[in-house]
Amino acid sequence: MQPIHTYNVVPKLPEKLEPLREIVYNLWWTWQPDARRLFRHLDPALWERTNHNPLRMLQLCRQSRLEAVAHDDDFLRAMEAVHAKFDGYLKRKDTYGRLHEKELAPITKETPIAYFSAEFGFHESIPNYSGGLGILSGDHCKSASDLDLPFVAFTLLYKHGYFRQQIDKEGWQQSIQLNQNFSHLPLKDALDKDGKPLFIQVEILGRPVRVKVHKLCVGRITLFMLDSDLTENSEEDRLITAQLYGGDTEMRIKQEIVLGIGGVHALHAMDITPAVYHMNEGHSAFLSLELIRRQVREHKLEFYPALQIVAGGNIFTTHTPVPAGNDAFPLDLMRRYLGDYAAKMETTFEKLANLGQTGRLTDDKFDPNEPFSMTILALRTSRHANGVSELHGRVSQGLWKDVWTGVPQDEVPITSITNGVHSRTWMAPEFAALYDKYLPGWEDHLMEPDFWRGVIDIPDEDLWSTHVMLKKRLVDFARQRVQAQRERLGESPEKVRSASGLLNPEVLTIGFARRFATYKRATLLFKDPERLRKILNNPERPVQFVFAGKAHPKDEPGKRFIQEVYRLTRTPEFENKIVFIEDYDTHVGRRLTQGVDLWLNNPRRPLEASGTSGMKLPPNGGLNLSVLDGWWIEAYEQNHKSGWAIGAELPTTTESPADPHLEDEVDVASLFHVLETQIIPLFYAKPDGRLPVAWIQLMRESIRTIVPNFNTDRMVKEYAERLYEPAARAHAELAASGGKSAVAVAKWKDDIRKAWPQIRISDVKVENAASGSIAVGDQVQVSATVHLGPIDPEYVTVQAYYGEALNNEITSASVADLDKRTKVSPGVYQYHGAIPAGESGSYGLSVRVIPTHPNLIQAHELRLITWAK
Q: Considering only CA atoms, which of 103, 188, 637 is closest in space to residue 391?
């Protein structure tokens, strides 16, 4: 046979359909049902075959079909309406960002927020994500667009994405590698200052690696994606952006160099100067080293002043409540890959390495055996850090308290901003239509709890029938997916046909879908198989479960959990009542969160940093059943009427966790007790024989209390006001006049550190405590003599630290400044103050000194604190 040459022919888009091309190249369509409906209408089968990819639809749709719809007046009217909506969205003037320009300054279009994350999940057709972190990043971008913030984002563009999941006959997860064709994605070339396609160079092991910069439009904002898979690079370097979370430690450090350092190079090449850098997890933290290097090179600053400027404008969000989940590199690997950065930053390798260790920069405590932690690097080069729920913020304070040695744990400078979900993305179009009818303008009032009281006006019949419609769609979807899986596995015709009988839309349906990490305890339900069998097979009030989720390809215990769940779905007593849907992605996630009655979440406390999957239920009328961890504590404590809790609140530190066997025993008993005595009876209670009235009332309560509070519009607005704006102002002040303030504060810090060991506190007196007659409402008078040595009292704060006394320790502490000062002798002062006696009880008190300066952003920025002895 003669050799052949292959080529592709794509349809020519009729001129009347040109608006489709504009819509395709902006991910605004991913949260607009009307836009998705347009493309589905072109060819429903092709829509499914392309994994709902509009660009691929335009590349594969038959020319005759395009010509036909170009003459279809109904289609053209629908397209024009969608395009007008898109155009109006982009040009809208009364957005949060426009109305708050003065408050957000110096964040502008020219000096935006730069948001870095290792993964972004926008839609199943763009598989550049693995799980919750990526979905959160994608939803963050969508809300930044909706709010119209000056905002750009950065990540790597992975050739093979994460992986597709197939379950074999034994129930074992098979990881199928993707091979993305970037021409099938709505990517455009990023352009340099001269308007040419942008390529940057990142130095790795002394050699330049060329990186192409693509851009992806997400509403009003842009995501830039870095790609090393270029023919001019070596095979080794082309693999850097091959696989998300693939490879070994050495591959990971190369990826993180390209993401962090390469991202800063790309911003500079596009002449974008961010006012704020936001690191979403520690993967991008090397950007701090590059920013310090640029301050040293371009502004002729020394290392330490440069660090002040960089840290002032950096924000770090941690998502991982266990040390093992945080990237750390051996020091010999750091020396190989980044040893030359020390000289570029005009410092020593020891000080560079110390940025990723717990010791202070000036303590000479460099530890050659302590690995370099990317989380510690991010914490030490950011003056603003947060966890992703209130509980996770407290857990993070305990996890990283050694970075602030001597500082009370509850004062470790890690705050919290609770995650949310992008409501429009995860809300079923049918529920959006319901809100349009009964809560008109709801999108403009998304964050207003009082507005959402209006759900009381939605009739029971409408609310329930909408939910039932979505539930039937989920049942059909599950049957189709399981049938396709059985056909692929070559199962018998009888087994294939039996998939059409899976699940029953009239039965209480509970969903569990997430990453199959072992701490999420996907198999907890099966620890009491007899009780499970009884509730599944109850003839009057049965229950059914739908599972989905992936385990990391290297997580063998997680894969065994999947196998256990899958095998149980094939046993006679559980078959047709428990279903596992393979290849969990955003499409599967939408079907489940929009269609189940109840969402089950039972992680091991306190290891669920936030857990946003359950937030996707309330916009769709679903309810939650979860342990009191992550976001659910905050939601449940609002009124205890928007769902149910599993178990009691157990210890909330990673240092003293509950006994795992006891925890499992307590939680599985609680889980079944709540199901048997509360949830199942309530669901099946239909006074009129048709509607579960009490259940519908809980649906309303879930919508009312959760939708306005647990969304990314609220979350991003909170970032803007609590972190972005203060960081931008601090960075601008420190960087002004060539870094004059940074130089001054750096010198002050050096002087304070040298003199600090001379500080002593003596003669602490609680002046009216001796009589034992302090009454509630009195003022407790406190005094102490403080030896400051050469330190000016202007630069210290003396405080009483007091609270309930328990086992010779102070708990639930408060702080009061001792603000009256009397000079006793040179360098020695007596401080006085008063603290309130608010409640009766036994209290403890100590006195401490901390440094203070107008340019300090954190109270414990110097990590210096002296206590009375």
A: 637
Report strand pairing: 843-851 vs 796-806. antiparallel
Residue 811 pLDDT: 86
How far CA 750 is from CA of 133, 304, 363, 382, in Å, comes to 38, 9, 11, 19
Asked whether this chain's domains 96-165+173-419 and 425-710 adopt the same fold, the reply is yes
Nearest to 863 by CA among 386, 375, 383: 383
d(CA 666, CA 860) in angstroms, rounded, equals 40
Give me the architecture of the 759-867 domain, per CATH: Sandwich (2.60)
For 585-605, the pLDDT digits (tens) are 999 999 999 999 999 999 999
- Distance (Å, whole) CA 57 – CA 65: 11
Amino acid at 390: E
List beta partners, residue 601: 626
Task: For residues 379 and 381, give the distance between their C-alpha atoms in angstroms, rounded to a whole number.
Answer: 6
CA–CA dist 728, 730 (Å, integer): 6
Q: Say whether 317 sits in a helix, a strand or coil.
A: strand
CATH superfamily, region 96-165+173-419: Glycogen Phosphorylase B; (3.40.50.2000)
Going by C-beta distance under 8 Å and a sequence separation of 6 or more, which residues neighbour residue 573? 533, 536, 537
Which whole-number Å values give the CA distances from 335 to 204, 287, 330, 331, 466, in the listed order? 12, 17, 9, 6, 60
Bridge partners, residue 848, by sequence: 799, 867
Q: What Å distances lie between residue 379 and 311, 400, 517, 684, 712, CA to CA? A: 9, 9, 26, 51, 23
Token pair for 373: 């932690």
DSSP notation for 715-740: HHHHHIIIIIHHHHHHHHHHHHHHHH
pLDDT of residue 325: 76
Round the CA-based radius of gyration of the chain to a whole number and report it. 29
Into which CATH architecture does domain 425-710 fall? 3-Layer(aba) Sandwich (3.40)
Distances (CA, A) of 645 to 412, 525, 679: 29, 15, 11
631 in Cβ contact with 389 (< 8 Å): yes
Please identify every stretch of the chain with a pLDDT value under 50, giving residue numbers as ranges: 651-652
User: CA 854, CA 153: separation in Å to the nearest integer?
Assistant: 32
The residue assigned the tokens 């006049």 is 737
Residue 767: per-residue pLDDT: 80
pLDDT at residue 718, rounded to an integer: 98
Tell me if the pTM is above 0.85.
yes
Sequence spans of domains, the chain: 15-91, 96-165+173-419, 425-710, 759-867
Q: What is the DSSP letter of 554?
A: T
Task: Check if the beta carbon of residue 837 is closer than 8 Å to that of residue 776.
Answer: yes
Q: Per the structure block, which two tokens stand in for 781?
A: 């008078």
Torsion of CA 535, 539, 542, 548, to 10 degrees: 90
Q: Which amino acid is at 237?
A: D
At residue 655, the pLDDT reads: 54
